[in-house]
Amino acid sequence: MTALAQSAVPGADLPSAPPLPPYHGITLSAVHLVHTAEQAEAARQILLAADIVGFDTESKPTFVKGQSSDGPHLVQFATDTGAWLFPIGADASAVLPALKAVLEAEGTLKVGFGLSDDMRRVRAKLGIEPVRVVDLAVALRTPGQKHDLGAKSAVARFFGRTLHKSKKISTTNWAAARLTDKQILYAADDAQVALRICRHWLAQGNVLPPPRAPKAPRRRKSTET
């Protein structure tokens, strides 16, 4: 293309938009790992005192075709000031009552991004039916938008910042006995960024759609003749 032709193209000489500044997430000191019944009870009291909490889960990835995940291996919640991470090992009996209390609480709204798989795995593995859950990926779509809104896009749209989500960290072993600091911050940010986006959305005078009703249990077919 000649210089003359290039100058005739609308916007050809306009500089590209500068990159957005980074999103500053939660600090490691504000994240609490929940392993014992005592830690779970303390977390339960804090989370149930909140009107809204951020919610997400992480599962160990599968790399074999046809293999299904046995997650979640981590369930995380966040308030405005902190995050609580519940590792789900072979024996989750110490933390399960607190998880059930929070996820089934009618008085606390749970918000997150892309929660359909998370909800399915929580039901299948933990036997918990979450209530008052809003998936912001769907709830914050603009009129005519066909695709769900991801956390990165939401942070760019509402905060004018870039949320860094490492693919390398997201595909690490979430079932590991000891999580790395990078895993801990990744998981905590996933939960808290949803809460921050929700707070911002509501502060602008918007409203969220009604939370999805829990799935009705499947009726067993009668074997009587």
UniProtKB/TrEMBL annotation:
<keyword id="KW-0269">Exonuclease</keyword>
<feature type="domain" description="3'-5' exonuclease">
    <location>
        <begin position="31"/>
        <end position="206"/>
    </location>
</feature>
<dbReference type="GO" id="GO:0003676">
    <property type="term" value="F:nucleic acid binding"/>
</dbReference>
<dbReference type="InterPro" id="IPR012337">
    <property type="entry name" value="RNaseH-like_sf"/>
</dbReference>
<dbReference type="Pfam" id="PF01612">
    <property type="entry name" value="DNA_pol_A_exo1"/>
</dbReference>
<keyword id="KW-0540">Nuclease</keyword>
<dbReference type="InterPro" id="IPR052408">
    <property type="entry name" value="Exonuclease_MUT-7-like"/>
</dbReference>
<keyword id="KW-0378">Hydrolase</keyword>
<dbReference type="GO" id="GO:0008408">
    <property type="term" value="F:3'-5' exonuclease activity"/>
</dbReference>
<protein>
    <submittedName>
        <fullName>3'-5' exonuclease</fullName>
    </submittedName>
</protein>
<dbReference type="InterPro" id="IPR002562">
    <property type="entry name" value="3'-5'_exonuclease_dom"/>
</dbReference>
<dbReference type="InterPro" id="IPR036397">
    <property type="entry name" value="RNaseH_sf"/>
</dbReference>
<dbReference type="GO" id="GO:0006139">
    <property type="term" value="P:nucleobase-containing compound metabolic process"/>
</dbReference>
